[in-house]
Amino acid sequence: MKIERRTVQFHRDTANLFFHILTRCNLKCRHCYINPAQHGAGILDQETIQAWLHVFAGGKRMDRHGKIQSNRQARDINLVFLGGEPTMNPALPEAIKTARGLGYASVTVDTNGYLFHDILDKVTPEEVDYFSFSLDGSTPKVNDAIRGKGSFDACTRGLARAGELGFSVSVIFTASRMNIEDLEYMPALLEGFGVKRFFIQVIGIRGNPAKQGEDRLQLKRDEWESIVPDVAARAARKGMHCTYPKVFLSLEEEFACAGLVADNFFVFPNGRVYTCPLCEDYPIHAYEIRKDVLKERQLITERDLYALRIPEGCVMNRVLHPGNIPYDELGNPIGRIACCMLKEEVLPAGGRA
Ligand code: SF4
Ligand code: SF4
After folding, report:
1. pLDDT per position as a tens digit, 260-305
2. How many domains does the chain have?
3. Residue 353 lies in a domain
4. In the structure, which protein residues have their CB atom closer than 6 angstroms to any atom of ligand 1?
């Protein structure tokens, strides 16, 4: 099967809303980025979730000077419900129905596969575009060492059941030193479950890994570039649409910060709204939701940092992970780090998953 590769450039036509409806979870994955001290420990109730879905779908936004504008319409926003484990929130089915009713462009649920509160029996394939399952290994041995005992079986059981009920399913694999050698076995496993989209993520040193000092889990450039594009191609040849972060840029390639040129909102139960995931461990969120208004915060927030132009590319990466930038003997960077939201796609030629 012929495949095609492309870089997915940022554009302003659509926005992405990553809505964490709780931070609680039944698992304790080693790379989990959830940070209740920063994100809140509450479970959003149905009323609040509905109000916040309305805020982003044409509701009010207030800038630093108190000027009120309307947010974009729901039809231009891709919505992802996540947590914590979002299916642990009993309000999720109603939240999905509300989002559909408001006309969000797409509705995805990211899950660890335990599928609490019989979620698959309370929503329909017409209401959910994708259930996206997190699986970090092709065997219980590899996966469970990262995500916890029994999680491989639970996840693959959930994946199979979702497929049987007619839901579209995708899988997210978070690559690190613990499982990169196993990545090559994933396409064959996922093909058997009818997976349409395969997302390969790279471990970020936030949340749990940062607390445990596990920066040794991070992959080096040659490990990433020698394995991931090949596995993505293999998945595409099996008919899957595979996406992975670009991570490294040559000096000739154009750099863009999504915080400046795209609309991405990462919403947490305590009302914090970030526009860059790398900033989520710090109280520098650009917005907060107050009285059902998306309010821009005063100086200094993440948005004030994006405008700092540096030869290394991503400002937040330079602050948080300076070790992954290569320099020459004069101290000039010989490569740049891309925005963490810049993706490469590999898919069957002419195919759209
Ligand atoms: S399933 Fe997700 S939210 Fe839960 S511990 Fe794992 S990474 Fe964190
Ligand atoms: S990851 Fe870097 S480049 Fe992307 S939005 Fe954040 S600061 Fe900007």
Report:
1. 999 999 999 999 999 999 999 999 999 999 999 999 999 999 999 9
2. 1
3. no
4. 25, 27-29, 32, 34, 83-85, 112, 134
